[in-house]
Each structure stands twice: as C-alpha cells, then as structure tokens.
Amino acid sequence: MSYNTYRHEDELKATIQTLTHGTAARRMCHLHLGSEPLPNWEMIGDIITLCRSLIFPGFFGNDDVNAFSLEYRIGIECEQLKSALENQILAGLCIEQKSRTEAETISLQNRAEDIAQQFINRLPDIRQVMHTDVEAMYDGDPAAVSHEEVIYCYPAIRAILNYRVAHELLLLGVPIIPRMITEAAHCETGIDIHPAATIGERFAIDHGTGVVIGATAIIGRNVKIYQGVTLGAKSFDCDADGNPVKGVPRHPIVGDNVIIYSNSSILGRIRIGDNAVIGGNMWVTSDVPDGEMIVQHH
Questions:
Q1: CB-based contacts of 223: which residues, under 8 Å, 6+ apart?
Q2: Residue-level pLDDT at 268
Q3: Quick one: pLDDT at residue 32?
Q4: Kindly report the CA angle at 234 between 233 and 235, in degrees rounded to 5?
Q5: Angle between the N-to-C axes of helices 41-55 and 70-96, in degrees from 0 to 180, rounded to the nearest 10
Q6: What interhelical angle do 41-55 and 177-189 show, nearest 10?
Q7: Is residue 145 exposed (0-12), middle (13-18) or buried (19+ Cβ within 10 Å)?
Q8: 3-state DSSP: the chain helix, strand, coil percent, rounded to 5?
Q9: Would you state the pLDDT for residue 31?
Q10: Which residues of the chain have pLDDT under 50?
Q11: What is the Cα–Cα distance from 53 to 62, expressed in whole angstroms?
C-alpha cells in the first residue's frame, strides 16, 4: 500500500521547529518538572463558588441550607475548599519557583497545605468585613429593597468578595492565583480590582461597570464609588533599559468617608482627604484636602 506525501509536510515541520525552539518558546511555554498541577480556571471557579457559599450560606452554592444542615454543609464545603486551594496554591508556588529539586517540591506541597489552612482560618474575618460591605451598599442605595437583594443581585458584592478572598491569599504569599480570582470577577462583573490593593470596611460600589482599582491603591473606611471610576497610575518610572519599574507606589490613597462619582479618574500617588467628594467625569492628579468637594464648573 502506498501513501501520498502530505502536500505541506515541509511547511508543517518548519512551523513545528519554530514553535518548539528559540527564545519565544522558552518565554511562552511552561514545561512541567514533575507531576505538579497547573493553575486551572475551572478549579479557580470552584474555589470562588465555595468561598461565596461559605461566606453567604444559602445565597450561593446549596439552596437547601437550614438550621439543621448548616454545620454539616459548612464542614463539607470547608473540606472541599481546602483540597481545591491546596492544589491551586501549589500550582502557583511551582510556577513561581521554576527550578527546584524533588525535595523542594515536597516542601512546596507542605507549604500549600499550611497556607490553605491559614486561609480557612480567616474565613470568619472575611465574612465579617463582607457584612459591612453589604450594609454599606444597602444603606447607600435608596433602590435597595433588602440586604438579601444586595447579596443576590449586586455585581459589586461578587467582585468585592473575590477581591477580599484574593487579597488574603496574596497576604499569605500565594502567587498568580489571587490575580486569577480577581480577573474572574472582572470577567463576570466588569469590575477590575487588583488583589494587592488595600480596601477598608464598608466599601460600596454602585452599579460598578468599568471600575478599575490599581495594585498599590489604598482605600479607607466607608468609601463609595460609582461606575467607571479609575484609581490608576499617572505615569510609570522606567529603568535604564526603558522597562517600567515594578513595585513602586503609584496609585491613589483615598481617605475615610469619601464619595467618588461616575467616570472620574483619580491618578497617581495622590491623597484624597477624609470626607471629600469627587464629582462625575473629573480628572484628578493632585491632592484633595479633607472635606473638599471637587466638581466641574460651567
């Protein structure tokens, strides 16, 4: 039996060679050193679902939670969450430490288990601060009929919950996975909060679409922002090779009891004072004193 030669065989081989060799392949291909897991969007979704269910039982996850089954449900979901977290935390740690021995991989597994348990221990604190966020959104929105409506319906609750979960994981030293968790909320809600941002209690986002909060932003207590608000960087310092300098504080510091109305851009490492009000469609690149109201003049 004879076989016809594949018409484009030489072209295909050349493309395969290009894809598997050279600088581009080294930068864009993550090669396993062993059997360690990779970050997985489906498992990230499971982690988010479990965290939402544990923080707001009955609202997310199982809909048959009652006074008799609550402890059982919480126990099952904590076990499931711990297992999923261990897997994905290990994936993040392994990507961060690309070159390692078998003993170092075992050490990372132990570290992932410890971090997962430490995170589980922090769930009551996350629930408490989320309670204040729900209160702030209910108190600050005349259209809100009930706390239940806020939890069920408001996209900001989902985005803020993802952020608070991701922020705790980041504080525990987990790479990559926190950013995936907040980016999942970004895709779901249009609200983009970097997990490294620092946000106080009673944080409210009204409507929310298009909100952007940068990595080094610091937001005080009882702050309310509207759709389209950006807490961003004004410019980037570059090194001698023209690359942006990493890790430099470059986003705003927002004080307590601040309101920022829709589509305003607050840029650079500036301070918005306590009790200040920023009107809509403002471009703010310098400090705003305590109690100041910044609006457009006609």
A1: 199, 200, 202, 203, 204, 254, 256, 257, 258, 259, 260
A2: 96
A3: 66
A4: 95
A5: 140
A6: 80
A7: exposed
A8: 45, 10, 40
A9: 66
A10: none
A11: 7
pLDDT at site 4: 56
pLDDT score of 238: 82
- pLDDT by residue (tens digit) across 100-137? 777 888 899 999 999 999 999 999 999 999 999 999 99
Structure tokens at 227: 């759709």
Let me know how long the chain is: 298
| H or E element, residue 148 | helix 147-153
| pLDDT score, position 113 | 97
Nearest one of 60, 47, 83, 79 to 166, comparing CA atoms = 47
What pLDDT is recorded for position 168?
98
> For the packed helices 102-139 and 155-171, what is the interaxial angle rounded to 10 degrees?
140
In whole angstroms, give the CA distance from residue 88 to residue 50: 14
Closest alpha carbon to 279 in 206, 229, 231 = 229
Q: Residue 209: left if φ>0, alpha if ψ -120 to 50, beta else—which one?
A: beta
Residue 24's pLDDT is 62
Tokens of 163: 């952020």
pTM for this entry: 0.91
**Cα gap 109→37, rounded to integer Å:** 11
Long-range contacts for 78-83 (Cβ within 8 Å, ≥24 apart)? 78/54, 78/120, 78/123, 80/46, 80/50, 81/47, 81/50, 81/51, 81/54, 81/116, 81/120, 82/116, 82/117, 82/120
Q: Measure the CA–CA gap between 219 and 204, rounded to whole angstroms.
A: 11
Half-sphere exposure of 228 (CA within 13 A, CB side): 10
Amino acid letter for position 39 = P
